Amino acid sequence: MKVTKADLRLYAITDRQWLGGKDFYMVVEQVLKNGATFLQLREKNATHEQRVEEAKKIKQIAAKYHVPFVVNDDIWAAKEAGADGVHIGQSDMDYEQARKILGPDKIIGMTAKTVEQAVQAEKLGADYIGVGAVFHTTTKQDAKDMSRETLAAITKSVSIPIVAIGGITYDNMDSLKDTGVAGVSVISAIFAKEDEGAAAAALRKKADTLFGAA
Ligand code: TZP
Ligand code: MG
Question: Where 4-amino-2-methyl-5-(diphosphooxymethyl)pyrimidine is bound, by residue (predicted)?
Answer without folding.
Answer: 40-44, 72, 111, 140
